[in-house]
């Protein structure tokens, strides 16, 4: 551990550049799939801007419980089912997964397909449940 601190003090410019690069990489990756929303912000956006919630979990997980009025398109099928979402291109899209980690890549796919207002729910459905928000089972 002492060697690590000695290296940082000796090469502080290199360490600073690496830290800045790492921070920018994390920032870039997290914003790639859209701005993150809390469950409360998600609810507000659905109510005020008629946002569409896309649940990218597997069909079985979706049936066990999902956000009311969410559309289920598993992450593996996003590219092949983009035509189903064409009618929502002018509306805000909120991508939801189980934990909030896979929503980034699905959001990036939607942005690449021309959807301009794409968001992702931070913490995914687990955060939704811990906020005691309603679930629908089908």
TrEMBL record:
Residues 47-137 form the Rhodanese domain. SMART domains: RHOD (SM00450). PANTHER family: FAD-DEPENDENT OXIDOREDUCTASE (PTHR43031), RHODANESE-RELATED SULFURTRANSFERASES (PTHR43031:SF18). This is Rhodanese-like domain-containing protein. It comes from Saccharospirillum mangrovi. The lineage of its organism: Bacteria, Pseudomonadati, Pseudomonadota, Gammaproteobacteria, Oceanospirillales.
């Amino acid at each position: 551990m002492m060697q690590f601190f000695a290296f940082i003090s000796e090469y502080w410019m290199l360490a600073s550049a690496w830290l800045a690069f790492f921070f920018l990489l994390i920032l870039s990756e997290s914003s790639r799939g859209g701005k993150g929303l809390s469950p409360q912000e998600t609810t507000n956006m659905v109510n005020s801007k008629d946002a569409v919630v896309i649940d990218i979990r597997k069909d079985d997980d979706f049936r066990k419980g999902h956000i009311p009025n969410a559309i289920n398109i598993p992450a593996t099928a996003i590219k092949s089912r983009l035509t189903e979402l064409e009618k929502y291109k002018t509306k805000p899209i909120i991508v939801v997964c189980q934990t909030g980690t896979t929503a980034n890549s699905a959001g990036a796919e939607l942005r690449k397909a021309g959807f301009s207002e794409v968001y992702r729910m931070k913490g995914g459905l687990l955060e939704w449940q811990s906020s005691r928000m309603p679930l629908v089972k089908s």
